[in-house]
Amino acid sequence: MADIFSLTAPITAKELDNPPRVVAEYFKHPKGILYFDLYWHQQQPKDAMHFIEGTLTGEGPWRINDIIFNVLGCRSTNIEMALEHEQWMTYLQTADSDYPPQGLINAIAKKMGADI
């Protein structure tokens, strides 16, 4: 499978004791990975932006410490998560979406140490 940072497909993050979640944005970080939950821009940063320190391993699924990243739909398709992603995409395409432009998202990630 491809390098996680070259994917265009949606991914999920699964922490050890939590259900998997669809990832809105993710970035390479010199010390690990930075990722944002869906609707991160409407939440408190500490609840929706996650910096995971460690070495990212694997070729899909990928692992960093106790977090596993998968392509959405791989390894036992999850219909609820696919629907959640579809609703997210619809939200992003609506004219009244308050989602920040990519330049601002990249600036936020860069401020948090991401390699942009």
Architecture blueprint of SSEs:
Elements (H helix, E strand, L loop, with lengths): L10 E4 L6 E9 L2 E6 L7 H4 E5 L3 E2 L3 E3 L2 E5 L7 H15 L8 H10 L5
Antiparallel strand pairs: 1-2, 1-7, 2-3, 3-4, 5-6, 6-7
What does this structure look like?
The structure is a single chain. The chain is an alpha+beta fold. The chain has one domain (4-111). The protein contains three helices and seven strands. It has helices at residues 45-48, 79-93, 102-111, and strands spanning 11-14, 21-29, 32-37, 49-53, 57-58, 62-64, 67-71. The protein has a seven-stranded antiparallel beta sheet. A hairpin with a 2-residue loop joins strand 2 and strand 3 (32-37). The longest helix is centred in the last third of the chain and has 15 residues, at 79-93. The protein is globular, with a radius of gyration of 14 Å. The mean pLDDT is 91.
Which band does the percent of strand residues land in? Answer: 25-35%
If strands are numbered along the chain, what order do they take across the biggest sheet? 4-3-2-1-7-6-5
Low-pLDDT runs: none
The largest sheet, given as strand count, sense and whether it forms a barrel, is: 7 strands, antiparallel
Q: Choose one word for the global shape.
A: globular
The total domain count is: 1
- Count of DSSP strands: 7
Rg computed from alpha carbons, rounded to a whole number of angstroms: 14 Å
Mean pLDDT: 91
Give the tags:
116 residues; alpha+beta; 3 helices; 7 strands
